[in-house]
Every structure is written in C-alpha cells, then in structure tokens.
Amino acid sequence: MKHTIYDNISNGKARAHKAFAVLIDPDKLNEAGLLMTIDLAIKANVDYIFVGGSLVVTDTLDKVVSTIKEKSTIPVILFPGSPDQITPKADALLYLSLISGRNPELLIGQHVISAPFVRQSGLEIMPVGYMLVDGGTPTTVSYISNTNPIPANKNDIASCTAMAGEMLGLKLIYMDAGSGALRAIPTAMISQVAKYIQIPLIVGGGITTAEKAKENCLAGADIIVVGNAIEKDPALISEISNAIHSLNK
Hints:
249 residues, alpha/beta, TIM Barrel, single chain
C-alpha cells in the first residue's frame, strides 16, 4: 500500500504527535524571501509547507512549488483559494469544502468544475471540511467566499459543524480565523471540536507566538498552520516549531 501524506497525518494523530505547517502565499514572497523561508523551515524541522492564498494574482505558483521541491524534502501541500490554484508539481491538495458557510459554490460548485483537472493532476487529494471562525476583523477569505464566519463564542456550532463534516466523509477539519486575524481561535472552541471528532484537526489564523501555537496543540489541534506572522517575523518559524515539537518528547 502506498504511503501517503494523509497516512502520516492520521498516524501522527493516533500517536498524539503534533505537527507544524508553514503557509506560503505566492503573492507575498519574492525569490530571496522564499529561499530564506525554505532554509528556516528546513533548519526548524517543519513538518509541512502549505502553499496558497485567498487571492493569488501572480503566475508564480508553479515556480514557488518547484523551488520548494528543489530545495527541500518537506512535503508541499496546496491550500487553494480557487480552482485555478492547482499545480501537479506539489505533493498533495487540500480539497476544501467550506462547511461553515452557506455558499453552494464553495460547498460543491467549484469542486465540480475543478474535478477533472484535479483527478488528472496526480496529486494526493485530501478532502477537508474548512471552517472559518471569527478572528475579530473581516478577512480576505470571508470577503471572497461571501460567507459569515462562525462566531468565536459559539462552540456548539463549531463542534456540530465539524461532526457533520466528519460524518459526510471528509478526512480533515481545518479551523481558520483567516490571514491577518486580530485574535486566534479560542482554545475552548478548539478543545470542544477536538473532543467530538476522530479525524485530524488543523488550526490556523491569528497565531503570532510560540506560546499560542503550543496552547492550541494542548487544546487538541494536531497541525498548527502559521503564515502571516512569519511573513512579518521569519524567526518565528524556529520558535513555533520548537514549541510544537516539544510536546512530542
């Protein structure tokens, strides 16, 4: 049986192994910045590199993914904001269904359009229940998706949404406060969602310190994703990675 990235994620959850993913937006890094980020990720033993964004307005996606693959052995996972943010040069694709919203295009419509190319891409496809949570400010993803995020104090809505996603057959739940969120997802919400699902839980958005990343892991997150904060302070890659991986000893 082929060993897959999802196997690694799922087995990691079974072993209570916490992982760290650096999110790279192709629009926000020049070549020097990309090379520096890759180097820091390698030195920090980052587990995964996610690539994508709500808006990718340049044509650098292929080049960014190719560069990461040339310079490192870290698995590259696409985190697309639209169907055209796909390249077969990556290792896997988070096939996102926005289950927190009520926009049918992001529940199934865009998937119908992209399915033939996704099938032909050869990428490992990981179906994901994507949940937007209010991070204290309107974000690009909430605007582009034309959906309202789950209120940060509505733990029951979040946990029921995640359970529904799991029972519909989705393989991962991704809770996201969005890029540039003023606050991270409350640990109480993470804890309740983690309590009621068995599939791996990814958490991102508004995480700006190693302490917050570790706190979210302790609350039940299996993978922590950080993008915006490390664009501003690349040194956080090492700090956050060390904090998360310290829980695996």
